[in-house]
């Protein structure tokens, strides 16, 4: 048995040395180390040997199998290296060919616009705050003086998840959360940009998802004239120094008094055209003095503190500033549209 194992090792090593390809090497491996190979047969016949021979023959069989396996792995590495070198000789790369162009993206038009507005208000001392898009009924409505029977509560206007959770319909809840966090301990001067959601039919001027930027300033002795000054500064810096503004009476549950702000039409310079519907003015945002009930619910004494709030839609502002005629262009990811507004 010893002689047979020694002869198998010598024979296998010779065939391994003579192998000229990986396929030949695999045939040798199967022939000698496979399930039906001679070494496996020796190991299966160990039961026929005497107790004295079994450990000797078993140890020798394992050594022979190990020697053959090591030789195969060594030869395999040699053949693989030779095959790679041969392939490198036949394959060439033309390094003079131009590379594939890389499409470089950029910030979305609305992102650019929101960041521009943020920078403007940060320059006036406002901080930027954020809040959850899935909001509670309390912060979205009640903390903003919107009672249960208010039309804004209608299911046609809001995406309710449960009776107490909904997709926020405006970014004003961030103002309520911030005032509630401070609990009347210090002034608030902030803006809060973000996405909002309403049950609306999508068309050229409406979308079920859009963006808003709300602003809030609460402190002692804040007046309506302060609101007008901030909004006038915003309009002139953002739309141009020649822009004029006007404030019209309006109504919002969370401000009293409330106003709508218009800017003079840049197309006709206030003379009247189709863009401004012959009025010379374009509505841009709403605002007013924070309602005393809103201050009180947030922990501020309305006898000591006052404040103003305003809200604008970056989507609408972008449409006016860049002459975009359909709000859906912002959300359909048409590269032909978006690439017009890439920053350098």
Automatic annotation (TrEMBL):
Keywords, ordered alphabetically: Aminoacyl-tRNA synthetase, ATP-binding, Cytoplasm, Ligase, Magnesium, Metal-binding, Nucleotide-binding, Protein biosynthesis
PROSITE patterns the UniProt entry points to: AA_TRNA_LIGASE_II (PS50862)
SUPFAM superfamilies named among the record's database cross-references: Class II aaRS and biotin synthetases, tRNA-binding arm
Main location group: cytoplasm
Free-text comment on the cofactor: Binds 2 magnesium ions per tetramer.
Binding site for Mg(2+): 256
Subcellular location per the Swiss-Prot or TrEMBL entry: Cytoplasm
Keyword Metal-binding in record: yes
Assigned EC number: 6.1.1.20
Catalytic activity: tRNA(Phe) + L-phenylalanine + ATP = L-phenylalanyl-tRNA(Phe) + AMP + diphosphate + H(+)
Record protein name field: Phenylalanine--tRNA ligase alpha subunit
Organism: Amphibacillus xylanus (strain ATCC 51415 / DSM 6626 / JCM 7361 / LMG 17667 / NBRC 15112 / Ep01)
